Amino acid sequence: MRAGALSVGAVSSGDELIPTPFKDDIGPDQVCVTKYLYPGQMFVSSAAAKVTAIPGSCVAVCLWDATAGVGGINHYLLPTNPRRGHSDLCYGNTAIAALVEAMLSRGASSSRMAAQIVGGPSVPEAFGGAGRSIGDQNTFAAREFFRLGQIKVDIEKTGGRRGRKLVFHTSRGSASVKEI
Question: Which CATH number fits domain 18-179: 3.30.1330.200, 3.40.50.10190, 3.50.50.60, 3.40.50.1220?
Answer without folding.
Answer: 3.30.1330.200
